[in-house]
Known about the structure:
By secondary structure, the chain is mostly helical.
Amino acid sequence: MFPERIRLLRKSQDLSQVELAGRLGVSKQSVSNWENGNILPSIDMLVKISTVFNVSTDYILGLDNRSSGDRCYLEVTGLSVEKIAHLQQIINDMR
């Protein structure tokens, strides 16, 4: 499941393997090996991949079928309750 998910996520953002590798700080060969199912990334790299694509590690691993379009994670630390509510309203308006 991982090879298909990472390929799908990469293509959905119109990234080449080279571009994704650059964002992750790995070689193009690493990305190619992941997509071909030859190797799996480390746990630290899996977290980095999920951050780049704004999806959960469970989604990437095929344990959860809800993609980033189904949920959104926003870092709101330090924001007031009012500002968080305002962000939620903006999101609701965009739907």
